[in-house]
Design goal:
Elements lengths: L1 H50 L3
């Protein structure tokens, strides 16, 4: 009985990674888009800083 429960738990844990994989893909894409937006904003601010006359 114990071996059966162990195998069942192992299979469930192994199968659950396929359920979570779309979530991780979306999270990775979202992080990539945020990174692009941060770089764009940084470049935008750098242009203003470099044009600033003191």
């Amino acid at each position: 009985m114990g071996r059966f429960l162990e195998n069942l738990l192992e299979r469930a844990m192994f199968a659950s990674r396929w359920v979570l994989s779309p979530i991780y893909i979306v999270l990775s894409l979202t992080l990539f888009l945020i990174m692009i937006k941060v770089i764009q904003e940084f470049m935008h601010e750098m242009v203003h800083i470099l044009r600033l006359q003191l």
